[in-house]
Amino acid sequence: MLQQILNSLPLIFTAALILAIAYVIGKFVADLVTNILTSLGFDNVFHWLGVQERPGRPAAPAPRPSPGTTTRQLFR
């Protein structure tokens, strides 16, 4: 039993190392893609689609329900 545990420790450490390397590579690729898309102007995609009025301004928030409004009244 102890021998099985000792034999599995290198495999566990190898798996942890692979996960750590994958995490670092994933963060690098995510930052790279973010920088590339930002430099291409992809931040303005909602403006191009007509969803947002002006680039850089958030869309108008949805109106808040008044106190006492029931769920049934909201979803009619």
Q: Could you explain how this protein is built, in words?
A:
This protein has 76 residues and is mainly alpha-helical. It has a domain at 12-55. The protein contains three helices and no strands. It has helices spanning 2-39, 45-49, 71-74.
Any idea what the shape is? flat
Helix content: 55-70%
Task: Give me the secondary-structure category.
Answer: mainly alpha
Rg result: 25 Å
Distance between the termini: 64 Å
Number of helices, counting only DSSP H or I runs of 4 residues or more? 3
Global mean pLDDT: 83
What is the β-strand count? Answer: 0
Largest beta-sheet characterization: none
Return residue spans where pLDDT drops below 50 for at least 5 consecutive residues: none
Order of helices and strands: HHH
Q: Into which percentage range does the β-strand content fall?
A: under 5%
Sum this structure up briefly.
Helix content is 62%, strand content 0%. The protein is mainly alpha-helical.
Give the SSE map.
Blueprint: H1 2-39, H2 45-49, H3 71-74
Structure characteristics:
76 residues; mainly alpha; 3 helices
